[in-house]
TrEMBL record:
Record bears the keyword Cytoplasm: yes
Name this protein carries in UniProt: Actin related protein 6
CDD domains: ASKHA_NBD_Arp6
Keywords on record: Cytoplasm
Protein species of origin: Astatotilapia calliptera
């Protein structure tokens, strides 16, 4: 079917052997790819970073996506397994939490995952001063600069929800237009705050800044400054306005004063790993990294275990 095609497929760190073997079977037996490379998304991001910054030796990939967040240190494109940290907080948890808040306070939206995910992407942001923003969000009327009105889609005249411009907001009384409105204030920054303090909603795990420091401190001391200087953000959650600035500020507070801290925010953090895969596919060493179908048919799963450093 795909017998002239090579495939690159990503999987999480420390994936179960049973899932890896099933993936090998699907790729080679069902779809019959000519060759395959199973790799972590963070490895592709690191390859991209080292390709564009050849003078750097180390980087710390922060991959915060839909299901979870991974913090993974790389040195010369090799991942350092002892430093990998996983936080069970991702975009799905944030969307579900926002659904619960809105359902409790305003409108039952527990079945509207897609719509509320769009609300989250359109109006949420990362607070730089959480307690100060909380005070602002409690103010009444126009003094509440955190408040936004979100027009929900009705899927006939309004196909996609949108945020009302501040100057069109009605602070007393109701809108005459008949649109269905969500009024959001502290939800806008309290939801992304879970990436920094999961314990706020009872998840007993480290936030991203703490996990980065925990990871770096598990690595050789002479390498640590290089990781703090090259923290690379990937994944959809990094698109929240203020995410990079907040992470850099919190890291700066946690890291020893004599070490420089720099957080790199790529132009497209969602596709950063994909672009790394594209670069890798054109790499002269690519053919050495993949497993050929003939090799798999001859040696089975063990050849994949040897080749893929997952």
């Amino acid at each position: 079917m795909y017998n002239n095609t090579s495939v690159v497929i990503t999987e999480p760190y420390f994936n179960f052997t049973s899932i890896q073997e099933s993936m090998n079977e699907i790729l080679f037996e069902e779809y019959q790819f000519q060759s395959a490379l199973r790799i972590n998304a963070g490895s592709l991001s690191a390859h991209h970073y080292f390709h564009t910054n050849p003078s750097e030796l180390c980087c710390m990939v922060v991959d915060t996506g839909f299901s979870f967040t991974h913090i993974a240190p790389y040195c010369r494109s090799r991942k350092m397994k002892e430093g990998i940290r996983r936080i069970n907080v991702g975009g799905k948890l944030l969307t579900n939490h926002l659904k619960e808040i809105i359902s409790y306070r305003q409108l039952h939206v527990m079945d509207e995952t897609h719509v509320i995910n769009q609300v989250k992407e359109d109006v949420c942001y990362v607070s730089q001063q959480f307690y100060k923003d909380m005070e602002i969000a409690q103010a009444k009327g126009e003094e509440n600069t955190a408040m936004r009105d979100y027009v929900l889609p009705d899927f006939s005249s309004i196909k996609k929800g949108f945020c009302k411009p501040r100057e069109e907001m009605v602070f007393s009384g109701k809108y005459k237009t008949g649109e269905q409105i969500l009024r959001l204030a502290n939800e806008r920054f309290a939801v992304p705050e879970m990436l920094f303090h999961p314990s706020d909603i009872g998840i007993q795990e480290m936030g991203i800044p703490e996990a980065i420091v925990h990871s770096v401190e598990s690595l050789p001391e002479e390498m640590q400054p290089h990781f703090y200087r090259n923290v690379v953000l990937t994944g959809g959650n990094t698109l929240f306005p203020g995410f990079r600035e907040r992470l850099e500020a919190e890291l700066r507070a946690l890291v020893p004063a004599h070490l420089p801290v720099s957080v790199v925010f790529p132009a497209n953090p969602v596709c950063y790993a994909w672009e790394g895969g594209k670069l890798l596919a054109h790499n002269p060493d690519y053919d050495e990294m993949v497993v050929m179908r003939e090799d798999y048919e001859e040696n089975g799963h063990c050849i994949c275990e040897e080749k893929f450093d997952i």
